[in-house]
């Protein structure tokens, strides 16, 4: 319950900050619309995480899993960039910069938060399947000969809700193609 309360508070925090920027340019926009969007997406995210043991159609599980995983990433980036924007605003306030009181500042800040979130998420999605091969020559004590040995190390595979099985199969195939000892 504590984690759920924290999740609700973070949803409110992000939605409220974005709303301040949206309201600066679109005064008729209602806060509850943004808050409902955040709540619905977070419920989908939680459902995607919790339904793996339920007997529901695979299509529904996969759809909720993909939407939930994408929202989880976007949500975390929104939180990250919103906190950064608040810290920047606090610094500007400490220096008594007057432009932070202007509605255009709030709007630009909200746009920057959303754009940075979208770009960071897109970058991550694009590069998630990019397996990098880096070769190292390892020298050991002079009596040990490992010159014919092929060692493969793998890290940071980031398996999750989106395409993990096929991604894992691709990773195993690539590793096997390197003929490791």
Termini separation: 49 Å
Q: Kindly state the mean pLDDT as a whole number?
A: 88
Strand % is: under 5%
Chain oligomer state: single chain
What does this structure look like?
The structure is a single chain. The model has no long low-confidence stretch (mean pLDDT 88). The radius of gyration is 23 Å and the shape is extended. Helices cover 66% and strands 0% of the residues. It has helices at residues 2-25, 31-50, 58-94, 103-127, 164-177. The N and C termini lie far apart (49 Å). The longest helix is centred in the middle third of the chain and has 37 residues, at 58-94. Helix 1 (2-25) packs across helix 3 (58-94). It contains 5 helices and no strands. With 181 residues, it is mainly α.
Topology:
Layout: H1 2-25, H2 31-50, H3 58-94, H4 103-127, H5 164-177
What's the short story on this structure?
With 181 residues, this protein is mainly α. Helices cover 66% and strands 0% of the residues.
Descriptive key words:
mainly alpha
């Amino acid at each position: 319950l504590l984690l759920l309360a924290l999740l609700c508070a973070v949803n409110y925090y992000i939605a409220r900050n974005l709303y301040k920027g949206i309201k600066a340019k679109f005064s008729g926009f209602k806060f509850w619309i943004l808050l409902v969007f955040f709540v619905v997406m977070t419920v989908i995210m939680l459902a995607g995480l919790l339904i793996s043991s339920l007997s529901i159609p695979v299509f529904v599980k996969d759809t909720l899993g993909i939407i939930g995983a994408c929202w989880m990433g976007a949500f975390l980036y929104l939180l990250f960039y919103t906190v950064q924007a608040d810290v920047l605003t606090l610094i500007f306030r400490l220096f008594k910069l007057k432009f932070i009181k202007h509605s255009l500042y709030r709007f630009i800040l909200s746009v920057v938060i959303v754009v940075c979130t979208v770009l960071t998420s897109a970058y991550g999605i694009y590069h998630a399947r990019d397996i990098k091969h880096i070769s190292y020559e390892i020298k050991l004590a002079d009596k040990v000969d490992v010159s014919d040995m092929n060692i493969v190390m793998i890290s940071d595979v980031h398996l999750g809700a989106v395409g993990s099985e096929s991604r894992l199969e691709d990773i195993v195939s690539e590793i096997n193609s390197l003929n490791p000892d």
